[in-house]
Write a structure and sequence with these properties.
Layout (H helix, E strand, L loop, with lengths): L2 H24 L4 H16 L6 E2 L2 E2 L1 H8 L3 H11 L12 H11 L22 H8 L6 H10 L3 E3 L5 E3 L11 H23 L8 E4 L5 H26 L42 E4 L8
Antiparallel strand pairs: 1-2, 3-4, 5-6
Helix pairs in contact: 5-6, 5-7
């Protein structure tokens, strides 16, 4: 792989990871937990290649060579994926680690097992002592407390003592179905673009248009119109795909059956301050997979 291609891969990866990182930050998933998930994803992706299997069993040496993971870790990940015991998550965000220690460490619980109310500082039974013991950073109690108060996992009383009222500082009001849909739709879109990257001579349908400087007043009229047109298109697609003649019969799917989906989304973002003037006003139409940098 040339330096230019490697740089393009790194740039595209960083671009797609930024919104994913925002999703994980909102869910209070630390970088250590993300790294664990990334390792699992690497192994799953490697096992899609039949050459990494030998007589139906995982060829650990080949997967290790392809992913850069150790043989021991690959074996553990495969065992976990096949229903084995899950390993304890590592690398939680500091606020979560502190909260976990507050609820579980006998030193910071009362006789009934509930977290005790703590003063901010002073002695071995204070919030500062809790942070020192469970976050790994003795000088970070102020931002950790700010995060716990902001997420309403901790309440401060008039006398200045602190009370733990939630076992997690994750306070997003997402529902499970919405999270599953997020992962499913994003995965489908990336799979399509990756397929087109690998098979440019026979790409799957993937097109987009971009107006780099849409007027805010015009958007108030234009966006509802586009939404209405998109709804009509998707209703027609749903009707066409749902016709009985086009849906497989029987309980067992035939060998050539496929899962097919159609998706549309609108993206809105502020214009970057560094956007060049005079060059980007024109609407662009991209076909298949745009070149790195055009996205």
């Amino acid at each position: 792989m040339s330096r230019a291609v490697r740089a393009a891969v790194n740039g595209a990866t960083l671009r797609l990871l930024e919104p994913l990182a925002q999703f994980l930050l909102d869910a209070r998933v630390g970088v250590g937990e993300f790294t664990t998930l990334a390792r699992q994803a690497y192994v799953k992706a490697a096992l899609r290649d039949p050459t990494n299997l030998r007589s139906g069993r995982v060829n650990v040496s080949r997967v290790a060579a392809a992913t850069g993971l150790s043989r021991v870790e690959i074996a553990a990940l495969v065992t976990e994926d096949q229903g084995g015991p899950a390993r304890k998550p590592k690398g939680r965000v500091q606020a979560e680690r502190v909260l976990l220690g507050w609820w579980n460490d006998p030193k910071f619980r009362d006789h009934s097992g509930a977290p005790v109310r703590l003063p901010r500082r002073g002695g071995t039974r204070s919030f500062a002592a809790l942070v020192k013991q469970h976050s790994g950073d003795a000088h970070n109690s102020a931002p950790i407390l700010e995060e716990l108060l902001r997420s309403q996992a901790v309440r401060e009383h008039p006398d200045g003592t602190l009370e733990a009222i939630s076992r997690t500082c994750t306070n997003v009001r997402w529902d499970e179905e919405g999270i599953q849909a997020f992962g499913e739709e994003l995965s489908e879109h990336l799979e399509t673009l990756l397929y087109n990257l690998k098979h440019p001579e026979h790409p799957r349908f993937a097109k987009r248009v971009v107006c780099a400087e849409l007027d805010a007043h015009a958007a108030r009229v234009l966006i509802p119109e586009l939404i209405e047109q998109a709804e009509l298109f998707l209703e027609g697609a749903e009707e066409s795909l749902g016709r009985p003649a086009r849906v497989r019969k029987g309980s067992a799917p035939p060998a050539n059956a496929m899962r097919f989906s159609v998706g549309l989304h609108f993206n809105q973002a502020p214009i970057p301050p560094s956007s060049p003037k005079g060059r980007s006003r024109k609407t662009r139409r991209s076909r298949g997979l745009p070149k790195a940098g055009a996205i």
